[in-house]
Amino acid sequence: MRLPAGSRCCLLIACREGCDTIAPSIAMSFVENRTGSKTKRLVSLLQKGMLLLITVGILVTIFDLLTFKGLRSEHLQIANESHRWKRLSDTCSGKEPLLELVTQAVGNVSMAQAYIQDNCRALPTWKGVSNLYGPTPVILGLEHCEDFRSNLNQAKPLGGLKIAGFFNSGTNAMARTLMENLNDGKYGSRATLESTIRAQGVVTQVPWGKHRWILADELARLSQPDILPVVVVRDPYRWMQSMCKSTYTLVWDRGLANHCPNLVPSNNKEMEMNGNRSSFSVQLTQSVTSTHHSLASLWSSWYGSYFRSSSPRLIVRMEDLVFHGPELVRRLSDCVGIDRVQPFVFLTEAAKDHGRSTDLLTAIVKYGSSEGRYMSSTLGSRAGQGPTLRGEKIRGMVNETSSLLRPADISGSGPERQTTGHDPIKPTKKRNLTLDDFQQSSQSGFPPATVLLALSTIILLACGLRYYPTSQQQRQVSVAFLGNSMFYFNDFPRFLVELSDNGIRQDSCLHGGASIPSLVQQGNGMFPQFQTPAAIYAQSSDGSPIFDYGACSAKMLLTGTSIYTPEQYERFNETDGMVKNPCREDLVFTSYIEKYYATNKPNWDYILINDNTRNPARGSTRQASLQTLQHFYIPWLHKTGATPVFLWTHAYSVESTPKRNMTGLDDVANFTSLTGAGYRAYAEFLQAHLPPTQKPRIAPSGLAFLTVYEENLEMWKKLFHNADHLHASPHGTFLQGCVVYHTLFGKMPDRDVVIRRDMGSLWATARMMQHSWEPPNPMLHERDATYLYDVAERVMNGHVPETYIEYNRGEVADTGDDS
């Protein structure tokens, strides 16, 4: 816990030493008298008094807790199975609607009674909840329902409702609740959100990605007549605190994350550290990086697009899902005209299995109280200053009697991408914690001795620490991808971002069928494959969408210099016949990307490279790649200072590729072994020409695939795309991703983050999974993911497949025409 400087000063007498900041006058007085015997005796008595105070606090706390629990057990009753509450203790008075809600959610009277007996004191009053959120749910946009309903195909899953909302806003809870309750619950599956029902064509989020910041005009172009977005809004003050705990893709510059969720500097030192700007800016990375003046500004800009949009959309509050769930879902189902489950199915467990999440009963206690919303740390410590969030309509989303939202004009332009400047926040009177707050805490369910013990413990901890650590923002690792369809199938760059829990920032230059030499010559080939809604990340001045194709060339990606285009461009056709350079085909993108790299020079930690799969195994193509590495990559790597990482790609069977020349590569184990020998040759060559800090690495995905081939042939078949048996399926991409992650970070990704009920959510931002004319692959189950995770971990810990051959004398495959 971080104490204000003034508070630490006041603790000096009790601390003697260890308080890092003291008022000069108090410090001088203490130093002058420190050697006196009277002072020493006084300090000794104070120390003994502190220990006595803490001991008494502990004993009284235990007594209070036992007494309160006994009173609750004695006075609280549940009348009968009809959930009617006949007799309530004073502790539960005024909470009857919440008691009924808990009973319905638990679904078992005995279990509900046990919970209420232990927790009734902690539950908020219904009056308090109504003061915060009103007596009924709030939904904006219901005026669109009639037109939408009249044109809707009733067979559309969930009535066309699709979820959108920023990180930490309750989108998973909303999606799972709709799955359980709409369409008579036929799409509901308590074990998963999307993965097991993807085959039925049900996707719960909007096509452009539920978390993506989308401009209002862009939303109008992307809107579809059979999709009605449901935008989930969360109380911005609690949301800001959650974003500090789970930051996802947010980054504070100048190491200011330890001030989160402060919005304004609190002293001259912080002001100077912040470049004399009036607010702590924050960067949001979603394909590209946008800079916002503060967390409040980001909240306003993100949701402002949906508020300003004239396109049909519904805007709901996350808190209404907690306190008015049945009524909220009833209104949504009536809006689109589809059936719902009776009685209402509550989502009682945590809605997401990654990051931080809250179950329903905890949410009732947490969100039913205003405590925690108004803490001064949210606003900054400067007296008389704090943020206002823009939004005339936003004001209607939260009851004015208890909200800190202030009326303003939401139509005011939000921060542009890559902007800087002063925060458009206005001074307002903030609320600091006072002794009255501790009094209120006691009256609302915390025994007085608990507060006494807490204060004593704070003093003790403050005296024992020289500084007060706070959570540090983990810097994102930047990774550039240079390769072919082994990267763009299942959008491996964006997948790796999700696998790393947004610990990676990426960009790429990809070209189907490319080799190391051809990628340098021909550059990007992702037009039009990446012309998908999920790939849109900005819009031009005339309203045209700007797609995230990646950099136009390898040179641009690594050095940021002007676009490299060969004098004579050739279409490179391997599997799709559609590969074109977007910088030749999309002039809007070309103009944007030139301006972007003119002001944003690349800064890469790692450069992930793969060759055409067969090329490292063959003599002539291996040599051509080595020459390209020598003449192009070595100078680029010296300039960037980045570490090169080669993806040792997987082998595929001869039977799966009858049209390809597989001479000398007709055995999976030998194919894998020769490919590895080629990548080792690449790495050793670069190592001889780079400083030790840039020692190349190899991500042995091929060894992981070969391990599965030896252990589980049926699982090995699942690793491949079902349309060509060559590219990776989601199973294969997951295995490859675990190997690459370990190669970059020296450890496996967090198992609790990457193995989840909804494995499909790892691809929530994918620009494409496979070619548009090909059928989708089955999504892997968490059981398969667990096995593949373990395979990757074993390989990265030194496991070598039995059939692997260690080639180390320059061996190559038998000669073919290398096609």
UniProtKB/TrEMBL annotation:
The keyword Transmembrane applies. Keywords: Membrane, Transmembrane, Transmembrane helix. InterPro entries: P-loop_NTPase, SGNH_hydro_sf. It comes from the Eukaryota. Residues 405-431 are annotated as: Disordered. The chain crosses the membrane at residues 50-68. This is Uncharacterized protein. It comes from Phaeodactylum tricornutum (strain CCAP 1055/1). The lineage of its organism: Eukaryota, Sar, Stramenopiles, Ochrophyta, Bacillariophyta.
